[in-house]
Amino acid sequence: MAIIEVRGLGKRYGPRVAVDAVSFEVAEGEIFGVLGPNGAGKTTTVECVAGLRTPDSGSVTVLGRAPGDVRAAIGVQLQASALPERMRVREALELFSSFYPSPVDWSERLGLGGHLRSEFGQLSGGLKQRLSIALALVGSPRIAILDELTTGLDPQARRDTWSVIEEVRAAGVTIVLVTHFMEEAERLCDRVAVFRDGRIVALDSPSALVSRVDGATRVRFVPSGSLDVALLEALPEVTSVSLLGEQVVVSGSEDLLHAVTSLLARRSVVARQLRVDQVSLDDAYVELTGGRDVEDR
Amino acid sequence: MWKIVEVEARLFLRDRLNSLFAIVFPSVLLLVLGAVPTLRTPDPNFGGLRFIDSYMSALVVFTLVFIGLQRLPAVVATYRETGVLRRLSTTPMHPARLLVGQLVVNFAATILSVLLLTVVGYVVFGVDLPHHPLGLACAVVLGGASTFALGLVIAALAPTARAAGGVATVVFMLLMFFGGVYLPRFMLPSVIQTIGSYTPPGVEALQQAWLGSAPDWRHLAIMGLVGLVAGTVAAKTFRWE
Asked: What's the complex ipTM?
């Protein structure tokens, strides 16, 4: 059952089109990723879903209603939002608890228990994010929208945050996760929507997106004896073959390894220093969004 | 709503330097000035009163403009700039409540400061208690409304917290000048004295309520009008992010 439905969403700021004809659905219990370069319309889209912005065209329904009517059911963690510097963790939790009829305290589960007396301005980046998540979840929402959750965190803090998100999902919360870390999307998301220039250019599971990329699997080895490259190229699983000194690099589909090793066995050639690389979501993303230059803009 | 006021009050007090300054400084200044013998000797310039008697209203002016223009716009503009208001707008609670909480806390601090000043003046120097308490209450409330509203207009229109601080400081200085904080009003040209009667927070009404009889209703009405107009402008133009 779709808990969020977005149909033909459009939003412009003055002459600039931020989002154009975006449609997607999010199923209950899912972790739905929103990927894309800066300025691709991710934040605008989730802000419309959260009821913070009014779409110029199209429709957004959350739990079958307008987002503004179900604000208490949506927990939001936004980028570029903060608390007063000198507000203590406990005060923030109490304050936000007072906004909801049956608040839930996530502070222990999020590892904030030892920091209740700390002031917001003194918290590390990771703890700020945890507090932000705790505040987004305090109203026991059915949907949590988390925007650029781990941007600016060190790798350990990022991994800690990921396990928190998995825990939140295990508690039955549907999650919309805006990110530009592929590793994060690959690890957490059931499905991802890839945004580019205000539109969705791909919407699928991370593994399905990866398999769309030509030559998604790469096998490298040094053959023990002479091997005719043309034989490799003739295999249906192979898309390309190249030579790097002694090393043979074969790219192709997912069943590539089996096809290559079978051929070598038939020819009685041993593959030394055999390595298999999988194209990551990173590569798929770069292909879908039109290159690094866009990402780094 | 009570929770917001409670948290805002704690934040106000936690900012020790500023909260002490707002609440205690006018009384401390009175003590310092009162320590100078000539300033506590009756003087014909003040119609036979002492300098410190006539300076009480200026100290109230200081309290009002300091809180209304140095505290309020800075905090509100910072709340917007750092995304505090944006964060709140994702909850069922409208961020306007946070601003109401700010107003309540700052107004409470103003009252506290004026009460402390009254007590210190009365106990230490035998300054008369306000001759017209109700008039003084009205003058403080309406004077506060006008300066707080000006502070909110500045917070609403300034693009950044820094800009808000800069503009507010200029207005702060001007209002202190017209309100007789720098130089006692008898030393100012009469035209400046007249202007001072009508600029927030309305020193003339404060003075009359404290040492004379009832304040002039026209002075109070002007303060109310300034508060109303500036408050409306602030509400209409306020950006939440």
From this structure: 0.83
